[in-house]
């Protein structure tokens, strides 16, 4: 199989899709000669096959990254690192139509949303470009005879493992802070969505990154992902994905070289609406909170709690709003919700819906597959749920939510926190005291007030409890990619003669 194929997308036109492994700024085949298919979830048809990285390719990519880290990359000034990131961000803007089209084709997300993702990628890459020459240490005067300084040094070779729900955005979130701080990366995409990152890899070369600094490989979690996370020459793993795999990665790090680990994992986030909320505003954010990206968001507001005074009215109007979400062809201009990413995810979600029905919850709307081709699922709202039901406790990662009634602030804080997760939450109220009191009491890494899913590259994102370790975005992400070195200089005479 060659290293590129000609593909066509409904809005991006014909283009050359790279399908190799991007190592050392070169396109190569996997050592074992393996390939795997990627499917268009809207049609269930195979788009193309890509070359698969196995353990041997991970070794080659890590060696290339190590060589770059010890060699040419070290001599690139922070200012120039910043310029490279800014240039890469600009290339995302320049190639926005193509990148968004490839993203929609491979992942199934609505093209309008894919375009937003690409703009966010450009923003985050430029943001971290701005940070590159602002990574500063400190000087310390310990005593008249001793002077010390603290350096913030890069961690080294970073393995980055990303999921399929935001293939490009997670790529940019990971690469931005790693590169700004002087690291090198081997990034493995999710097996469901390899294509857009390979197009982006070409842009890194065009931007002028030296060979080996950014390596992009396609492959399976249990093979290439496991090889990266247990590799003895990988200094750090940054992972976004399920909590189950997060635990595996932590174990692999513990069982190998104790590499640093940051994890951005699952969630079961509460979205809380008080009686005094602006109901139209709340409904629109609650709808966006769960159905955006087809519910395939780790921070999805999947548990909705509405105060008793407006509960009945809210349910009725939320149903009407959700039924207006346009579900269908990702490339149609008005589509809000496309297909789920894969048959596996589709089946998982349909199983959860069945669980909910069997457990006695009421299906207010949805609950079915939509159409007979593609992995489309109707927006689904369950009411009459109890806190111990699986659909209320487990992450569904689809367009499915539960809605229930609460009486008091104290009660909703307690049930809001009644989960092993702690990624995000939201509060809808016009009362400032309620907003602040509840936001402070919720054990979550992000709390939105009168909003949902508002993410920004300046604002740290990550989880409390089992939703993760470390923060992405903002200045906070730089911490994950630097290590502190103390240099202590003795100025006076020898102490011990
Ligand atoms: P999902 O269940 O939503 O598909 P995963 O957590 O399985 O999410 O996948 C997220 C990323 O983790 C993907 O890139 C996948 O290949 C990778 N992955 C899956 N299993 C492992 C593993 N055992 N070790 C390392 N990476 C893995």
From TrEMBL:
Pfam families: Aldedh. It comes from the Eukaryota. Residues 27-487 form the Aldehyde dehydrogenase domain. PROSITE patterns: ALDEHYDE_DEHYDR_CYS, ALDEHYDE_DEHYDR_GLU. The keyword Oxidoreductase applies. Its EC number is 1.2.1.3. It is an enzyme of class 1 (oxidoreductase). Keywords: Oxidoreductase. The keyword Oxidoreductase applies. The active site is at 264. It catalyses: an aldehyde + NAD(+) + H2O = a carboxylate + NADH + 2 H(+). CDD domains: ALDH_F1-2_Ald2-like (cd07091). InterPro entries: Ald_DH/histidinol_DH (IPR016161), Ald_DH_C (IPR016163), Ald_DH_CS_CYS (IPR016160), Ald_DH_CS_GLU (IPR029510), Ald_DH_N (IPR016162), Aldehyde_DH_dom (IPR015590). GO terms for molecular function: aldehyde dehydrogenase (NAD+) activity. One of its GO terms (biological process) is acetate biosynthetic process. Belongs to the aldehyde dehydrogenase family. PANTHER family: ALDEHYDE DEHYDROGENASE-RELATED. This is Aldehyde dehydrogenase.
